[in-house]
Amino acid sequence: MRRYAIPLLLALACSRKTEQAVASAQPDIHTQEGRDLMLANSDPGGDQKNDAKIRKLQASLAKRPELVQDWIELGNAWIQKARDVARPGLYANAGGAASRALALEPANCLALELQGLVLMNDHRFAEAAKLMQQVVQSAPDRPVAWGTLSDALLELGRTDEAIDAAQHMMDLKPNLPSYSRAAYLQWVRGDVQGAKDSLRLAIDAGNGSIDREPRAWVIVQAAMVFWNEGDAEGALAGFEQALKELPGFPPALVGKGRVLIGRGDGKTAEPLLAQAYRANPLVETGWLLGDARELAGDDAGAQQVWTEIERKGIADPRTLALFLATKKLRTDRAVELALAERKTRDDEYTEDTVAWALYRAGRLPEALQATTSALKLGTRDARLWYHAGAIQMASGDQTGRKLIEKALALNPTFDRTGAAEARALVSVKKADL
After folding, report:
1. Residue 405 class from Cβ within 10 Å (0-12 exposed, 13-18 middle, 19+ buried)?
2. Which of 309, 288, 290, 308 is nearest to 299 (CA)?
3. For residue range 38-65, what is the model confidence (pLDDT) as tens digits?
4. Phi, psi at residue 236, to the nearest 5°?
5. Considering the entire predicted model, what is its pTM?
6. Is 96 helix (H, G, I), strand (E, B) or coil?
7. How far apart are CA 276 and CA 285, in angstroms?
8. CA 356 → CA 99, 154, 369, 393, 398, distances in Å?
C-alpha cells in the first residue's frame, strides 16, 4: 500500500517538536489518515506480552493521540509481532503508526527509521535508501538508519556503498544487528570464514537477550552458510539450535526441511515445512513443501501447494519468478516478473533470477549478460554457479561444464530440481565426448 509522501523537514535535525494533535475516534477508511489509524489500531489477536503492549499503547493513544513517542512504540511493537509470528504483512500496521507519528513530527528520526523498515518490507528499496540517506546526513549518529541504508543499497546492487553504510553502523554500535549485516556482506563477497567469524560475534552478542527472535534468526543464517558450503550436518545442527532457541521458528523449520529434502527424506521434511508454511506462507516455503511432498510420493499435494503459491506469490515476485523458471511452469510469466523486479531491485540474486528466466525462454544473449552480473561479487552459491554454467554451455561455451561440476562439488543438493538437472547435464556432455 502506497502512503502519502512524508515531508522531510530534516533541516530540523530530527526535531521532536509536536506540530499538531490528530484525533479520530472512528477513522474514515476512505482517507489515508483513516486507513493508517485503522491499521495501527487493529486488534493484534494474540495473548502474548507484545500483544498486551500493543493494546495498551492503542488505549493510550485513543486518549492522547498527540503522543508521538507512543505512535513510534506502537509501530515498533507491530514490527516485533511481525517478526515473532513470521507475518511480514503486519509491517503495514507498523506503517500506519509511523505515518501518524510523522504527521505530528515530520523530522522525528525514530519515526523515519520506523518508516524505513516499512519501506524495506514493501520492497520500496530506492525510497528507503533515499529516506535513510537524508536521516544520516542530518543525524550521522543513527546506527539503525545506517543499517537500513546498508540493506536498501545492497538490494539496489550498490554493494560498495552498502558495505560503507554497514561499517558506519558497526563503528557506532557493534552489536547483533551490525555483526549480522557484516556477515552477510562478507558472505556475498565470497569471504566465508569472515562471515562465520562475524556470525559468531552476532550470536554471542545476542546471549541473554529477552527477545530470542534476533538470535534465532542469526543462528539460522549461520546454518545457511554451512548449508551453502555443502556441510549438511553442520547446517542441521544450526537449525536444531535455532529451534531450541525459539521453538517452532519458521525459518529454522524451513532450513531443517531443506536438509532433509537433500537427504531424500521427503516424508520427514513434509510436516516441518507444512508447519512453517501455515505460519508464514512464503513462496520459497511452499516451493520446498511441494518438493517434500513430491519426494514422498504425494504428487497431488505438491501440485496443490505449487498452484497456491503461484496464485498468492505476487508479494515476492523474484522468488516466484525463480520458482516458475526452475519448474518450467510459465516461462513467459517468469520473465515478466523477473524483469519487472529488476527495475526496483538489482542485486546479484535478482540478476540470477532474470538470467534463469531468460534462459528458460531461450533468450540466451540476454541471459548470458545477466548471469555475468550475478557472478561479479564472487558469492559461493551452487545455484548461481549451476545457472551460469548451464547458460554458458547453451551459448556454446563448454567451460560452463566446469562451473556446473564446481557447483555440484560445493553443494550437491543445492536444489532438488536444479541439482538433478546439473547432474544430468554434466553426464550427457561427458557421454558426448
Report:
1. middle
2. 290
3. 999 999 998 888 899 999 999 999 999 9
4. -60, -40
5. 0.87
6. helix
7. 7
8. 39, 21, 11, 13, 18
